Amino acid sequence: MVGPGEHDEPVAKSVPGSASVRLRAVLERPSRPARVLGVFPAAIYLADPDGTVLTLCTHDAVRLPNAVVLTARTAASPFPGPAGRIDARIGDGRVGLGALEVTAVRWWTPPRPPAPGDADARRAGRAALRGALAPVRTGLSGQARADLAELGRYAATDPERAGAAALRLIGLGPGLTPSGDDALCGFLLARRLLDPEPGGDRPPDTLGARIAAHAPGRTTDLSAALLGHAAGGDGCAQLVDLIGAVGRGTDVLPRLRHLLAVGHTSGADLAHGVLAGAEAADAGAVPTVAEAPYGPGDGTELPYPEGRSAREQRA
Amino acid sequence: MSSALELRRGTYRDSVSLMQVSRSVAAVDGVTKALVAMATELNVGLLAGMGFETPDGAGPNDLIVAIRADDEDTLRRAREVLEEALVLSTGGGTGIGSAAGVPPRTIRTAANATPGASLALVSVPGPHAFAEAMDALEAGLDVLIFSDNVPVEQEIRLKDAGRERGLLVMGPDCGTAMVGGVGLGFANSVRPGPIGLVAASGTGSQELMCLLHAAGSGVSHCLGVGGRDLSEAVGARSTLQALAMLDADPATELIVVVSKPPADSVAAEVERYAATLSTPVQLAFLGQGRDDLTAAATKALAAIGHPGVQDRVWRPDAARATRTGALRGLFCGGTLCDEAMIIAADRLGPIASNIPLRADWALPADLRAAGHLMIDFGDDGLTAGRPHPMIDPSLRLERLAEELADPACAVLLLDVVLGHGAHADPAADLAEVLRAAGPNAPTVLISLCGTDLDPQDLESQARTLTAAGAEVHLSNAEAARRAVAIVEGLDA
Amino acid sequence: MSAPNPNGGSLLTRDPSVVTVGAELLADALAAQAVPVTAVDWRPPLPGTADALATVLADARREAANRVAIERVLASTPHLVDVKPASEALGLRAGQFRHAGPPIDWARASGPMKGALIGAVLFEGLANSPEAAEKFLAEGHAELDSCHHHHAVGPMAGVVSPSMWMFELEDTTHGTRAWCSLNEGLGKVLRYGAYGPEVIDRLRWMSAVLGPLLRTAVRAGEAIDIRAIIAQMLQMGDEGHNRNRAGTLMLLRELLPNMIDSGAPTSDIAEAARFVGGNDHFFLNLDMPACKLAMDAGRDVPGSSLVVAMARNGTDFGIQVSGTGDRWYTGPAEVPDGLYLGAYGPDDANPDIGDSAITETAGIGGFAMAAAPAIVRFIGGEVDDALAATRRMYEITLAENPAYQIPVLDFRGTPTGIDVTKVARTGILPQINTGIAGKVAGTGQVGAGLVTPPADCFVAAIRALAEAAPPLG
C-alpha cells in the first residue's frame, strides 16, 4: 500500500466546497498565503495574514461556523498528511492546500435554533440539562466551574464582576479549544439565543464583545475565533441543537448525547456553558448555589447516555 | 489419436479448482476428453468410463491427469495449458475489498451506504418513479420527484406515506427546489434571504427567486410540491407540510405560496392553515385578474420592507422594425407560458395553446394555428420519452426557425431559463437560429430567467442574445406586455 | 427491514446529502454545488411489471406484513429431534411418492426425476426391473406430490418413498416440524436420477443400518441445534448448499459418541461414521429442513411479498410467496452454468432440479457465497465475485440474519428473505448454487455450478400480489 502523499506525485486537484457565509469577505479578497494552525483527519485549520481563522473540513466533521466543507467524508482522507510543510492560500473564492484546491461554490448559513418556548418550557429544559449533566465528565476544574457560575450569576447585574470571571476562563485548559473557552462559547451562545426577547440577528452584546476582544493572544487562534463566532450567535449544529432543545424543554437528552460526542471533553464543557448561559438568559432565573452547575467534582464518572452514571443505573 | 495418463502423488487440490483445470484443458482445440482430478473412487470410476486404465496404487491424495487428443501436437498444447491452469488454480484474484465499489442498485442500499443522506432526487421515467420514491420514504429520506407522467393516485399515496413518516414529498413533476442554498433540479443560484417559497410551479418559483435576487433580497428555501398539489384530488397535502416546515425555520420571515389558482375548497384550506402560522404567508395564486409573478415579487418585498422589483431590459444591438400580426410564444416553462398568455389574452383575445387558458383555445395535435399561439414545450405531452426542453432545446429551435420565417408572425416571445440543471449555454443555440433568420423576421423578445450567480452567467447570456437581435427582459410579465404592445401597434 | 432514518424531517436544518436516481445531469449539478451525491445504478424493472409493482408497493399492508414475516423467519430455531422412516414422518403409504419442486406428473418429468422415481419404485419392491418400474409409473399407479406440500424438502430429484428414512427437525420457537431424507453421497445416487443396483443397495443399507443408528444416537441426546451448526459452518468456509464440509463434521462430532454408546455392532458404527464423514454433503439434508422451517414460519402473511419457497422439479422452477398462500409461480427451469465432472459437458446437463434452493430462500447457499471463497471457481470466478454475489443479494432481500454472519464482510448478517418487489424492481435474480444432474435417467451427477430462477416466476408473482392488493386510489 502506498499511503496518500508518500510516493504519489502531487497532482493539482480542484474540488467544490460549501463555505460558511461568515467567510464571504475573507474568501472574496485576493488570494494570499495562509498559516496552517493544525492538521487533523477531519479538519485543517488555517489563518489568513489578518488573523481570520478558517476551517477546511470533511462532510462528516463537526461543522464550525468558519468552515469550508468538502463533499468527501473523513474515511476518504481528503487532506494531505500532517508530515512536512503545506503551502496554504486563501482568497479569490478558493482555499489552496498543497495540491488540493477548494472552490467555494455555495454558501451555507450557520444554524439558528427555533424560537424558545414559554417560561415553563425553558425551566423544564434547564432542569433536564442540569440533571443530565451532573454525572458527565468535564474538562473544567472546580475553580473554573465556580467562575462559570459567577459569570452566570452576575452577567445581567454586575458586568464588571461577570467580565472578570469570564476573563479568568479564557484559554483555561489544554488543547486546541481549551475547556474554559468551550464553556464560554456555550455560555455566550445560549445566553444570546435563549433571550426570551426575540431579537433576530443583532450585534454582539457587551459581555460577548468584551470576551471576543480579549481572547486573541490569550488562547489558541482557533479558540479565539470560535469565541468571536459565539459572541455573534454562531456555533456548531450540535451546540445550537442543544440550546434549541433547552429553550423548548424537549429532546434535551438526545441533543446532549450528540453534543457530548464532540471532541474529548469539548462537548461536556460546551454543555456546562449552555446551562450557565440558559440560566443567565432568563431574568429571575439566576441560579441558586444549590442549582449551580457544579458536578460531583472528582471528574471520574463516565458520561452515561441516559444522564445517569453506570453506578446509579445498577443501584 | 493420442492420449496421456499421469498420476501425481501427494498433490492435493480441491475438487472445484480441479474441475476448472479440467475445463481449461478440455477447451483446447483437438482435445476430446480430459480429466484432472483427485483419484477418489468416484473419479477413478469416471476415468474408467473414459476408457483409461486405473493407475496402480492411486489414492484420494493423488492427482490423476488423463487427456485424450487428436494428435501428439494437440496433446503437447493441452499439457502446457494444464500446467498453466494448475499454477493459476493456486492463486489469483484481487482479494477482499475491490468489490466494495459496486454501485448501489436501489435507494435503500445507497442510503445505507451514505451516512447522513437526507434527500432522494428521483428522475427516472414516470411509470417507474413511484417505486423509487416509495423506497426513499421507507429509507427515511425526504423525496424530490422530478419525473412527470406519474398517476395522481400514486402521488396521493406517496404524500400520505411521507406525512406518516414526517417526510416531505416534493413532486411529482417538481422541477425546482432549493434547500439550504442547494438548488435541486432546475434551480437558479440566489443569495440567502428571508423569503421562503412553497411552489407548485417550477419555473414560477425560478422567476420569483430571480426577481427577488435581482432586487437585492434573497431566499431561505424553496420547497417544490409538484404542479398538482393544490388540485382538488391532492388537496395541498405537501403544501401544508411545507408551510409548517418553513414556519419552523428561523431563517424564514415571509412565506410565499406560488401556484395556479387552486380549487376553492383547497384555497380555503390553505388560507385557513396559513392563518394559524406565526410566519406571515403570502398566497401568490397566478391567474386572470390576479397578480403576475413580478407583482407578487414586489408585494413580497414590500412585506419585508424591501424596495420592489424593477424589470431589467437589454436592448438588441440592431433593433428590427416592428409590425403587427400574430404573437407566437415558444416556452420551456409552463408557468411562464401561462403568465404570458394571461397578459396577452387580456388585450388580444384568444391565444391558442397546448396548455390553453380555455378548453376551446386548445391547439390541434400538430400544434399549428393561424393566429396568436403559445406552446409550452415542457408540458408532459411533449416530454414523454425525451428530455425537458431546458436540457434539449432541439424541438423548440426547429419551431423557432419556422416561426422566424412566417410573415404572419409579428412577435416571437421566448423564455430562456438559466441555473443548475439547465443547458450549459442556452443563448448560443438560440442566437444561432436567430442570426440565420432573414431581414424580414419578426421582433424577438426574450424573458431571461437567471442570476449573476448562475453557472451560465446572466450578463453574458443576455449579451449573446442581444447581439443576435433579440430584446431581453428579466421580467417575463414585462416581456409579455411589451410583446402585446408591439402586436397592437402601440409600440415602435 | 431498514429502520426509519433518524434524520427524517430535518430537511431544512441539515446540509443536504443526496441520493439520486435517474438523470445523471441532475446528480452532476448537485456535485458541482459541493453536495455529496450517491448515485443509484438504476435499471428499468422486469418487463411488464411496472404497473403491478406500483400497486404492490402502494399496498399499505406490505411494509408491516413483510416485517412480521421476516421476523418470524429470523426467530426460527431448528433442532434435530428424531430420525424415522417416511411412512411415519410423512405418513406415506405404499405407492405414494414425494418429489422436489412444484407438482409434476410422469409425462412432464425430466430424466433425473424419472430415474429417481424408477429407483424408488424398485427400492420399494413395486417392480422388479427398471422397465417394469417405468411402466408402473407411466400407467399412473404411483401417487406423486411435492415435498413442499408436506413440510418436507429433498435435494435434486428429492424423491421420497415410504421406506426411506428422514431427519425430523423441530422449530422450537414456532412448534412446527419439517423433514428431509438422508444424504446418499455423491456420484451415482438416486437423487441425481441414478437407479443402478449400487444405488438401491446403498438405500437399503441406509434404511437398515444408518437410519436406525442415527435415530438411536439422536434420541439418546438432547435435540441438536442446527442453527448453531449453520452459524459456525458459515465461518468455516461452507455456504450451506454446495459446500457442507464443516457442517457435516460438526454434526458427526455431535452424533458419534451416542452412536458408539448405542451398543450397535462396531462394524456398523464404523461404516456409518465412514459414510457420514466421507460425504461432504451429508449436512445439506439438515440445513435444508432447517431453512424450510424458517421459511414456513414466514408463510401466509396477507400483503407480504416475501418469497417462502424456491424449488425445481427438473422441468419447472417454482416460487411461493407469503402473501398468496400455496400458489406456485413457475417458469421453465434453466441449465446451470458450471463445471463438469470428467468428460461431461453442458450437453449432458439436465435443467435445474431440487428443493435445495430453500437454502438460498433462507439466505444461505448462493446468498452466503462470500463465506465460501473456496468454491467461487464453480463460476470460473475470483474471490471478488463471491463477495459481489453476496453484496448483490442484499439488494433483493428484506433483512440481514443476525445469527448467520459472514466474517469477510465484517460479520455482516447473510442477506435473508427475498422480496418479490425488489427482484422485479432491480431485475437482480436470486443466485443459487447447485449440483447438476445428467439429463438422461440413470446418469447421476455430471457437475456443479450456478443458476438463477427464470424471471417469469417473479413477474407472475408480482402480478398475483397486485391482484390481491387493494386498488390504488
Describe the structure.
The complex is a heterotrimer of chains A (315), B (492) and C (473). With 315 residues, chain A is an alpha+beta fold. Chain A has an 8-stranded mixed barrel. In chain A, a hairpin with a 5-residue loop joins strand 3 and strand 4. In chain A, helix 3 packs antiparallel against helix 4, helix 3 packs parallel to helix 10 and helix 4 runs parallel beside helix 6. The termini of chain A are far apart. With 492 residues, chain B is an alpha/beta fold. Helices cover 37% and strands 20% of the residues of chain B. In chain B, the strands form 5 sheets. Chain B has a 7-stranded mixed sheet, with helices on both faces. A 4-stranded parallel sheet of chain B has the order 10-9-11-12, with helices on both faces. A 3-stranded antiparallel sheet of chain B has the order 1-3-2, sandwiched between helices. The longest helix of chain B has 17 residues. With 473 residues, chain C is an alpha+beta fold. The longest helix of chain C is centred in the middle third of the chain and has 24 residues. Chain C starts with 17 loop residues before the first strand and ends in a 5-residue tail after the last helix. Chains B and C meet through helix 1, strand 2, helix 2, helix 4 and strand 4 of B and strand 1, helix 1, helix 2, helix 13 and helix 14 of C. Strand 4 of chain B pairs parallel with strand 1 of chain C, so a sheet runs across the interface.
SSE inventory with pairings:
The complex is a heterotrimer of chains A (315), B (492) and C (473).
Chain A: E1 13-20, H1 24-28, E2 32-39, E3 43-47, E4 53-57, E5 67-70, E6 88-91, E7 94-97, E8 100-108, H2 119-133, H3 142-154, H4 159-169, H5 179-193, H6 206-214, H7 221-231, H8 237-248, H9 252-260, H10 266-281, H11 310-314
Parallel strand pairs in A: 1-8, 4-5
Antiparallel strand pairs in A: 1-5, 2-3, 2-6, 3-4, 6-7, 7-8
Helix pairs in contact in A: 2-8, 2-10, 3-4, 3-10, 4-6, 5-7, 5-8, 5-10, 6-7, 8-9, 8-10, 9-10
Chain B: E1 2-8, H1 15-26, E2 31-38, H2 41-49, E3 63-69, H3 72-88, H4 107-113, E4 119-122, H5 126-138, E5 142-145, H6 152-165, E6 169-170, E7 176-179, E8 182-185, E9 192-199, H7 202-214, E10 219-224, H8 237-247, E11 254-259, H9 264-275, E12 281-285, H10 293-303, E13 313-314, E14 326-331, H11 334-348, E15 352-353, E16 373-376, H12 380-383, H13 394-404, E17 409-417, H14 426-436, E18 443-449, H15 458-467, E19 471-473, H16 476-487
Parallel strand pairs in B: 4-5, 5-6, 9-10, 9-11, 11-12, 14-16, 14-17, 15-16, 17-18, 18-19
Antiparallel strand pairs in B: 1-3, 2-3, 7-8, 13-19
Helix pairs in contact in B: 1-3, 5-6, 7-10, 11-16, 13-14, 14-15
Chain C: E1 18-21, H1 24-31, E2 37-39, H2 50-58, H3 62-75, E3 78-85, H4 86-89, E4 96-99, H5 111-123, H6 130-138, E5 143-146, E6 152-153, E7 165-171, E8 176-181, H7 197-220, E9 224-225, H8 226-233, H9 245-261, H10 266-277, H11 284-297, E10 307-313, E11 316-321, E12 329-332, E13 337-340, E14 353-354, H12 358-361, H13 383-394, E15 397-406, E16 412-418, H14 420-426, E17 432-437, E18 445-451, H15 455-468
Parallel strand pairs in C: 1-2, 4-5, 6-8
Antiparallel strand pairs in C: 3-7, 3-9, 7-8, 10-11, 10-14, 11-12, 13-18, 15-16, 17-18
Helix pairs in contact in C: 2-15, 3-11, 5-6, 5-7, 7-9, 8-9, 9-10, 14-15
